[in-house]
Amino acid sequence: MPRNKRQITFGHIIFNVLYTLAFPAIATFAFLYTALVWMFSIPSRIIAFFASKL
Q1: Which residues does 6 contact at the CB level (< 8 Å), separation at least 6?
Q2: Which terminus of the chain is less hemmed in, N or C, by CB atoms within 10 Å?
Q3: pLDDT on residue 15
Q4: Number of folded domains in the chain?
Q5: Domain-embedded: residue 22
Q6: C-alpha span between 45 and 38 (Å, rounded)
Q7: Quick one: DSSP state of residue 41?
Q8: What percent of the chain has pLDDT over 90?
């Protein structure tokens, strides 16, 4: 019984490359988002630290 192999097309290759690259891109975006939130929260943490000393 012959097996029907799916034909490899240019679109199939592009999809696989983008699909593989999507995971590091999502991880990088999540890391940058977390880093930005942390960076912008530092001034309020400093203010809260010195306000608690008063």
Answers
A1: 12
A2: N
A3: 93
A4: 1
A5: no
A6: 10
A7: H
A8: 76
Q: Which domain holds residue 34?
A: 27-54
Token pair belonging to 22: 């999507």
Residue among 43, 26, 22, 46 nearest 34 (CA): 26
User: Residue ranges of the chain with pLDDT lower than 50?
Assistant: none
In a domain, 40, yes or no: yes
Residue 46 resides in a domain:
yes
List the structure tokens of 18. Answer: 């983008």
Find the angle CA(21)-CA(24)-CA(18) to the nearest 5 degrees: 15
Distance between CA 47 and CA 43 in Å, rounded? 6
pLDDT of residue 2: 62
CA gap 26, 21 in Å, rounded: 9
